[in-house]
Amino acid sequence: MKLVESIGEKVFSIITEGISRETHNSIPQCFYVSGELGYGKTTLLHRIKEKVKSKEFQPIYIDCLLHPIQNEEKLEEYVHSVTNNERAILLLDEAHILLNTWSSQELSKLRALIYSPGAPIIVFAGNRVTKIFTEYSAPLYNSVLLLSLDKLAYTDIKSIIDNICGSNSTKHVDVDVDIVNIVNSLEPTPLIATLCGKAIKEGYHEEKDIKHQVLTYFDALYRKELSSLSPVQMLIVTTLLKAQTPCLLSDIANDTQLKNSDITAQIKRLKDRNLVEVIKGKPKKSLYQIKSNLLKAWYKESSIEKTDVASHF
């Protein structure tokens, strides 16, 4: 859908223009594009792949979730096996998985590769900017250009839905339903706006029905995500999902019967997985909550809510 594609146009232009300035033997300018689930990262990478394909460059798309790369050596081996005389452009989707599982030694090798003349031009795309790019002592500090895909504005959301349903999409639903508000309450991303538009087009007219159709789309994804947690992490996440609002450490401890030290250690890991965030409360006390409004909405909608989530995994 061209309308959805155009939303990341600024990031697309920065990357493709940067690639166009590369020569066969230049030291590559690499990029990291961050954006949460549904922000259009995969669409962006496929657009770049189509744009830059030429006799000089060979773009290679890799989904690091479906096809994990064990280390830097395996990455180089793969690149050499699929390229001839063209310079490789690596488009690494779900790159945070790769970057968070490689050792510091492997990341240092990756840094050396990035600074080599004629090395692959790498476009990383992931759910968040990992600390290996932003901390001074980290292996990949200051080695890539950091870019981000932003949440949709009101006009963008309305345009996507109107594009799917026809102009005046509000005619398809009850007068009391604010379609843009539904998208914003879940996550203002191209994917959510598209799913809402499709639900309306398929004849769902009430807010609860539209939300149900959207959230069902994420059922398998979230079940898989939760099933990958450790039992202790699952207890903490369950508590925060049930609360639906920020919790004090003492609230989590009371509900889980875990020690404070165990909770804080696991919350650090949950933050790294982008599941939990910490916000400052009063007076000077940290509050913890599930980061994704979409995940909270899914949990509330799901039949899992009526029992203990942990028993399902």
Précis, in short:
The protein is an alpha/beta fold and 313 residues long. The chain contains 16 helices and seven strands. The chain has helices spanning 2-7, 9-20, 41-52, 72-82, 95-101, 104-114, 131-134, 154-165, 179-186, 190-201, 207-216, 219-227, 231-243, 249-256, 260-272, 293-301, and strands at 31-34, 57-63, 87-93, 121-126, 145-148, 276-280, 286-290.
Structural class: alpha/beta
- Main sheet attributes: strand count, strand direction, barrel closure: 5 strands, parallel
Q: Roughly how many Å apart are the termini?
A: 36 Å
How large is the radius of gyration?
Answer: 22 Å
The CATH level-2 architecture of the largest domain is identified as: 3-Layer(aba) Sandwich
- For the record, what CATH class of the largest domain applies? Alpha Beta
**Overall morphology:** globular
Order of helices and strands: HHEHEHEHHEHEHHHHHHHHEEH
Main β-sheet, spatial strand arrangement: 2-3-4-1-5
Q: Which spans have pLDDT < 50 for at least 5 consecutive residues?
A: none
CATH-level-4 superfamily name of the largest domain: P-loop containing nucleotide triphosphate hydrolases
Got a strand count?
7
Average predicted local confidence, pLDDT: 86
Give the helix proportion (percent range). 40-55%
| Domain tally | 3
| Percentage of residues in strands | 5-15%
What is the tally of helical segments?
16
CATH fold group of the largest domain: Rossmann fold
